[in-house]
Each structure stands twice: as structure tokens, then as C-alpha cells.
Design brief:
Helix content is 77%, strand content 0%. By secondary structure, it is mainly alpha-helical. Helix 1 crosses helix 8. The longest helix has 35 residues. It starts with 12 loop residues before the first helix and ends in a 7-residue tail after the last helix. Bound molecules: phenylalanine. The site of phenylalanine has 15 residues, from helix 1, helix 2, helix 10 and helix 14.
């Protein structure tokens, strides 16, 4: 009883891989990975991150795609239908609904940061960074983030770009965007890495990224590495699940997931290799937080030959990466609205875009008029970011993995995965034991219920 998605399907396996990699590769790789690696001391954090991707991320990604392709609906109804198929409690559907909510929340801040990137693209292209110093670069950044009106304008522009693609549907929108932007993104990234390694302090960057020093890693850092694995691979909220629901039946899930996870990790490391050599050779601070690439890189672009071109290309790279991810954040709520509330894709897109745009104002104001309003030292933006990355995504991923590997009947999961017995057993072992236990341990450790470090 093969189901069909009412939204259509990817035209080829490559289209799925590009779209899923487009979802995975985003601000998480180019903006967040470098700055949290900087804040957490480098090598040891990177190593834990890679371990999390391999042992937790990959099996959960396979679980999500599997659930999506078998359910062929929005995350909530896919999980509900599969539970019903195998005679399990339909309450599993709430996991999918939490994912849909996480989509709203993440997209709300994602669009604001992506809006900064769009603004920076125009600034770089317009030559604004020519000759900037550390001080003036900070001022340019503060001038943007501190001005709610300007940020709202860029946030609106980015949200409109995202809605434009989503409204056009799976093959006409999502697939086209990935096919055009992903190859461009890889080319620009390689160019940037070449530049960084050639003219920055490549040796120090390699040491920083790949020489682990475990004294510099805390329990909270381990949780952050795991949260980052979820965030970067787009796991735990149904984005990969909904992309899986458009996957043709004859494509290998395990192999595709492997390609996506490896590409995503490669892009994060390459982004590190593009950025840190420049940061080190200009004696900039690695631990400066969310402003890292926005404050430090323009200084370098302002001094280097062809800096205007490289600067514009870099921020274009960031915009493309964010754009293909934002459409995947929008997809679960949109399909949920279309299927549950029987409205057109266009209306669902408008509604999702409108609500997330409004929520996004919270992030906009976190950097200016509400910057003093903190709870446990966190602004509203910090709060939404850590609630989603460090709590909702790991718990969502935990539940999806338990669902696919414990709750679904063996015949259903193996019937959908259609892989060799060895690969099936390996996936099931990782998804049954390793991923859920690891998520639980890291999580309980970080909230202080158990203590390892
Ligand atoms: N993976 C995206 C990134 O790294 C963010 C994202 C998270 C997208 C969750 C979809 C779902 O930027």
C-alpha cells in the first residue's frame, strides 16, 4: 500500500540529494559552526561534532527519510499514519507537530540572520568595506543590527524570497532552487577556501580545527556540539522527513543520507578553512560570537586584492546557503496547513511566512531595543536558538529514531529501507541504542541531572 504525496516528488535521486544538502548546508555551516567552534576552543569540539554526526545524526537522518517516504504526508500525519499501520498509539503524531512548531521558531530567527547576509552582500558589492578597521567594522555591524527598521526590511526581503520559492511547489520551486544554487555554492566555497589557505594563516587554522585539546571542552560544549549536529543536518523537526516524503520509491535511503551527511560536514569544515586562516592572519578574535563572520571578515575583505569581489561572493554564498535551508524550514508547516486545513499551497505559504515574520521581530529586537531584556543571561534570540537547537531538535530526533527503530514493525522499516541485511542491522542498532542513549546522556549531563564533566 504505497502512498503518494499530494505535493509530487523529486524528479531524480540527484534532485533529492541537492535539495536535502541544500536544506542541511546553511547558516549553520557557514555562520554558526565557525563561531561556536571559536567559542568552544576548536579541535576537541570539532571532533565531538563529527562523532555526533556519524553516530547520532546519520541514523536519525535515515529514520526521518524512512518515516517520510513511507508516510508521504506532513510530519504529523506521516507519524500518525505509520503508527496506525502498525497498530501503535496515534499519539506519536504529536512528535511531528512539535517539529512543525520548531520549524516556525527556527525560521523566525533564521530569516533575520539571513537578512543580515543579504544586507552584507550589497554592502560588500558596493565597496563599503574598503579599508575598514576592526573598530569601523564593529560599527558597521552594530549600525545594522542596532537599527530595527533596517533589519526588518532585510528580514522581510529574505522572507519574501523564501515564500517565492515555497509557493512554487516541489518540482517548480524547491527542486529548481537547489539545482541552481547548490552548484554555485560549492564553486564559491572552493574559491574562498583557496583564497583563505593561500593568503591567510592556513597552518594555524588547521591546528585550531584539527588538533583536539580536551581541556577546552565543557559538558555544555558537548551538548552544543550535539545540538549543532542536529541543527546543521536539519534533523529533529521534520524538514528532512518532508523531503523524504517526496523521494521516489526506488532510491536508496541509506546511501543518499550518507552523501548528504558527508557533504554537510565537508561544507562546515571547508567554511572553517575559508574563515579561520583570514581570522588568524588578521589577529582577529575567534571567540567573538554571532558577529564573527560579519565583523571579522569585512576587515579582511577591505584589505585584500579584489576584496570587493571576494566579499560579495562570500555573502552571496551565505545567502544561497540560507535560502535553500529556509525553504526546507517552511515546508513542514506549509504541508501541514495544506493537508490538515485544506488550503492552497499559496495561502499556506502566505500564512506560514506571515507568522514567522512576526515571530522574527523578537529576534530583530533582541539586538537593539530588547537587548537588555535577558533571562538567565539570554536574550530572546539566544533563548529561541538554544531552545530549538539544544532541546527541541535533539528531543525530536530522539523520538523519531525511537519511533522508526522501536515502534514501527520490523517488516515496515526494512520494507521501506530496502537495503542489505548488514546495513539494515547497523542502522537499527544505531537508531535503537546508540542515538537515543547518546542524546539522553548528553542532554541529562548538560541540564545537570547526571555529571560527567
Ligand atoms: N540545517 C540548516 C543550517 O545548517 C538549518 C536547518 C535546521 C534547516 C533545521 C532545516 C531544519 O543552516
Amino acid at each position: 500500500m504505497e502512498r503518494k504525496s499530494i505535493h509530487g516528488q523529486w524528479s531524480t535521486r540527484l534532485a533529492f540529494i541537492l535539495a536535502a544538502t541544500g536544506s542541511a548546508v546553511g547558516l549553520g555551516n557557514i555562520w554558526k559552526f565557525p563561531y561556536i567552534t571559536g567559542e568552544n576552543g576548536g579541535g576537541a569540539f570539532v571532533l565531538v561534532y563529527i562523532l555526533c554526526v556519524a553516530c547520532i545524526g546519520l541514523p536519525i537522518m535515515i529514520s526521518e527519510i524512512l518515516i517520510g517516504r513511507r508516510g508521504r504526508q506532513n510530519p504529523m500525519d506521516s507519524m500518525g499514519s505509520l503508527a496506525r499501520d502498525d497498530g501503535r498509539s496515534v499519539h506519536w503524531q504529536w512528535v511531528g507537530l512539535v517539529g512543525v512548531c520548531a520549524g516556525f521558531l527556527i525560521l523566525s530567527f533564521y530569516s533575520v540572520i539571513a537578512g543580515w547576509a543579504v544586507a552584507y552582500f550589497f554592502r560588500a558589492a558596493g565597496g563599503l568595506f574598503h579599508g575598514v578597521t576592526a573598530e569601523s567594522s564593529k560599527q558597521i555591524f552594530a549600525g545594522l543590527t542596532g537599527d530595527p527598521e533596517r533589519v526588518i526590511a532585510w528580514h522581510s526581503a529574505f522572507m519574501a524570497m523564501t515564500m517565492f520559492v515555497t509557493a512554487r511547489g516541489v518540482q517548480g520551486g524547491l527542486e529548481q532552487a537547489a539545482k541552481i544554487m547548490m552548484p554555485a555554492l560549492f564553486m564559491i566555497l572552493l574559491l574562498m577556501v583557496g583564497y583563505g589557505l593561500h593568503s591567510g594563516d592556513a597552518e594555524r587554522a588547521f591546528r585550531f580545527l584539527f588538533q583536539p585539546d580536551f581541556h577546552r571542552l565543557t559538558g555544555a560544549g558537548v551538548l552544543e556540539a550535539m545540538g549543532q549536529a542536529f541543527f546543521s543536518l536539519s534533523l529533529g523537526m521534520g524538514a528532512i522527513m518532508i523531503y523524504g516524503s517526496y523521494l521516489p520509491g526506488d532510491v536508496s535511503i541509506a546511501r543518499s543520507a550518507l552523501v548528504v551527511a558527508v557533504s554537510d560536514t565537508a561544507v562546515a569544515l571547508l567554511a572553517g578553512l575559508a574563515i579561520f586562516p583570514i581570522v588568524f592572519s588578521n589577529h582577529l578574535q575567534v571567540g567573538s560570537g554571532p558577529g564573527l563572520i560579519f565583523v571579522t571578515l569585512p576587515i579582511a575583505f577591505g584589505q585584500m586584492p579584489y576584496g570587493r569581489v571576494f566579499g560579495a561572493l562570500f555573502f552571496l554564498l551565505l545567502v544561497f546557503a540560507a535560502w535553500t535551508s529556509a525553504i526546507s524550514l517552511m515546508e513542514p508547516p506549509v504541508t501541514w496547513l495544506v493537508e490538515r486545513h485544506r488550503i492552497s499551497r499559496f495561502r499556506a505559504t502566505m500564512l506560514t511566512g506571515g507568522i514567522t515574520w512576526l515571530l522574527g521581530l523578537g529576534t530583530v529586537f533582541s539586538f537593539n531595543i530588547w537587548s537588555g531584556a535577558t533571562l538567565w543571561h539570554m536574550t530572546l534570540f539566544d533563548g529561541i536558538d538554544s531552545l530549538t537547537s539544544n532541546v527541541m531538535l535533539p528531543l525530536g530526533g530522539f523520538a523519531m529514531s525511537v519511533f522508526a527503530a522501536w515502534v514501527m514493525a520490523r517488516s515496515s522499516s526494512s520494507g521501506e529501507l530496502r537495503t542489505s541485511p548488514g546495513v539494515y542491522r547497523l542502522w537499527r542498532f544505531l537508531a535503537r541504542f546508540v542515538a537515543p542513549v547518546a542524546v539522553a546522556v548528553v542532554f541529562l549531563n548538560a541540564i545537570g541531572v547526571i555529571r560527567f564533566s
